[in-house]
Design brief:
- Helices cover about 60% and strands about 10% of the residues.
- It is an alpha+beta fold.
- Strands 2, 4, 7, 8, 10, 12 and 13 form a 7-stranded mixed sheet that branches.
Length: about 625
């Protein structure tokens, strides 16, 4: 199929070397075949326009052209050099317009003298180190080097597109192909203009950063409201304490000028302590784990949805925006836990895995953000695109986010930990398996390479064949092939190999794994059957430790406010020394009473849990009897 007609305009060749009745045409069939071969896939356009070829934005576009005879209908391959320019475009077919000469230079020129300011529309894919350019900076392409990669930088007409009706953005280009500026064919000039439809434009990284900032703003607003509410309650408590102790606020305002810095430092220290206690409560609150679990499950569903071709083509932009927002939750969770737990955060393997996943996700987003950042010339942007393309493998680490869900399911954690612990005891079995595998590899290679060269022709084929036999896949066909070629005794070696490797070592491998699972199940049952106050001592100590940390935070904050109240009271010269001592003693007694009340509450809660556990175990034992 050759694209010509009203929409795709082609001028007849001009010059003394042109044949009569010939013109340049776009070979759509060959272009589609080469595009499928280069990208190993082809995505149809969700909203096709009749008569306009449609291609996926992320795919390499390799156009082909022919010299078509308008009289006899014959065609030949166009082998001359030519320039490839985007001379028009629009979001819809009705809004397509022709660009001015200055816009054409900004959108297509790779000359260093042209400051495009992030306006390049396309670039070479795997271009050579030295570009062949015209005087105006346009790339010279040929039939051998004509691979186009759509770039659409931020300030180009197709940059930072937004979707319509939740479908990925698309754009219509007017392409001009001409050999007028090439020096290889001065006797016949051809010019072709045709329309091209590109769909599936991705989310611009700068806009993705905007979505991340908006999500962070929402989280900050919630945190500020929560912190403000907590500080207001603490302030009310302090004011009530001052009124109850008979301290006049006017006396508190009488302080020396030198105490201003001390007062400001005390207030800042109190605010930081209060903020730390608030973050501590958020991290220890089970609600945080429930929220993160919902985020992980939603992120998992989006990752699975992106594996379907129809979803990738139609809603890839929206899913990328959702992914940018969800990344903020992971970062906030990791930062909060590192602030609260410090170095102890990295002592748990699950936390290390979470941190690695978050780090790789940030690395992937940073690479795409650097690519779309301003300040690069057209040539630098083209080179940077090729360099960063080799680092796109970091996107595969997004699939590791699925492992974050294991943290919220105790059963999956037990299975995974049991498998990891089993590998320690299975190392000797694995070594023996590979040792016998190489022994049998040498035997089969030396004895049956002539009877069955397809399976035992070299050492690598033999290893692959023995791995295949280990799964009992087509081992009878391997036997019949050697038997038909005069080696029926291979059956004895195959039987010996299957008995040793499969029935012995592989079953030992499975037996060790099953034994470890039984041990873990037995330990879990013992913990449930022997549950008592002594057994729950470890859990009680961990709960008491968390309560003590909160109590220490509250005691430190109250001591700071008490000291501040004492400074306000002592700043008045009329206050007697005896009165100051009485106030100090009174405040110390209040702090001690508050601390004893906290311990009483924790002990009462512990007693309730013990009584409930006692009756639960007793009812279970009666039921079993």
């Amino acid at each position: 199929m050759m694209v010509t007609g009203d929409v795709h305009l082609s001028e007849r060749g001009t010059g003394p070397g042109c044949l009569v009745g010939t013109r340049l045409a776009f070979d759509l069939n060959t272009t589609l075949e080469e595009t499928k071969r280069l990208n190993n896939e082809f995505f149809d356009c969700p909203n096709p326009e009749p008569g306009v070829p449609c291609f996926f934005y992320s795919h390499v576009f390799k156009p082909f052209f022919i010299i078509e005879g308008t009289v006899e209908g014959e065609s030949d391959r166009f082998l001359d050099s030519y320039t490839f320019k985007v001379v028009g475009g629009g979001r819809t077919r009705g809004s397509v317009r022709n660009y001015s000469h200055e816009e054409i230079l900004n959108f297509n020129s790779l000359s260093d003298s042209e400051s495009s300011r992030q306006t390049l529309v396309w670039t070479y894919d795997d271009a050579p180190d030295s570009f062949r350019l015209t005087k105006e900076g346009f790339l010279l392409m040929s039939n051998a080097s004509n691979r186009v990669r759509w770039l659409c930088q931020r300030n180009s007409p197709c940059g930072d597109l937004t979707p319509v009706n939740l479908l990925d953005p698309d754009f219509f280009f007017i392409i001009e192909v001409s050999n007028r500026e090439t020096a290889s064919s001065p006797f016949c000039e051809h010019t072709l203009r045709f329309e091209l439809h590109a769909h599936g434009f991705p989310l611009d990284p700068v806009r993705g950063l905007f979505f991340m900032q908006m999500t962070m703003t929402v989280i900050q607003t919630i945190l500020i409201c929560y912190i403000g509410h907590t500080c207001w309650r603490l302030r009310q408590k302090t004011v009530n304490t001052k009124k109850r102790d008979g301290l006049d606020e006017q006396d508190g305002n009488q302080f020396k000028a030198g105490d201003v810095l001390v007062k400001v430092g005390s207030m800042l220290h109190s605010c930081f302590l209060q903020l730390y206690c608030i973050i501590f409560r958020i991290v220890q609150n089970p609600m945080l784990d429930h929220v993160i679990m919902l985020v992980v499950l939603f992120d998992t569903s989006t990752l699975i949805a992106q594996t379907f071709q129809g979803v990738t083509v139609r809603t890839g932009w929206c899913l990328s925006a959702v992914d940018s927002c969800l990344l903020v939750f992971y970062v906030v969770e990791a930062v909060f836990k590192i602030l609260v737990r410090g170095r102890t955060y990295f002592r748990k393997p699950w936390n290390v895995l979470d941190f690695f996943i978050v780090f790789m996700s940030l690395l992937e987003f940073t690479l795409s953000l650097v690519q779309s950042a301003g300040g690069f010339s057209s040539r630098q942007a083209s080179t940077l695109f090729r360099v960063l393309k080799t680092l796109k493998g970091a996107r595969v680490f997004r699939a590791l986010r699925l492992l974050k869900a294991i943290r919220f399911f105790k059963g999956l954690q037990a299975i995974l930990l049991t498998c990891l612990q089993s590998f320690r005891s299975m190392s000797s079995i694995i070594v023996l398996m590979f040792l016998f595998l190489f022994i049998f590899t040498v035997i089969f290679r030396e004895m049956f390479n002539e009877s069955d060269p397809e399976h035992f022709g070299n050492i690598f084929r033999t290893i692959f064949t023995l791995f295949q036999i280990l799964t009992l896949d087509d081992w009878s066909l391997i036997y019949m092939t050697s038997r038909d070629n005069g080696a029926p005794h291979i059956i004895y070696f195959l039987s010996l190999y299957i008995v040793v490797e499969l029935f012995t070592f592989l079953n030992l491998f499975i037996a060790v794994l099953a034994d470890n699972f039984q041990l873990s199940i037995r330990k879990k049952r013992q913990c449930k059957s022997q549950k008592s106050p002594d057994v729950k001592e470890g859990e009680t100590q961990s709960g008491e430790k968390a309560v003590e940390d909160l109590e220490m935070c509250q005691v430190e904050i109250e001591e700071e406010f008490h000291k501040e109240a004492l400074r306000f009271a002592s700043s008045d010269s009329k206050q007697s020394k005896r009165k100051i001592e009485l106030i100090s003693r009174h405040l110390q007694l209040l702090a001690a009473m508050d601390q004893h009340m906290q311990k009483y509450r924790s002990q009462a809660c512990l007693l309730d849990n013990l009584v409930e556990t006692f009756f639960t175990v007793r009812s279970f034992s009666v039921y079993m009897l």
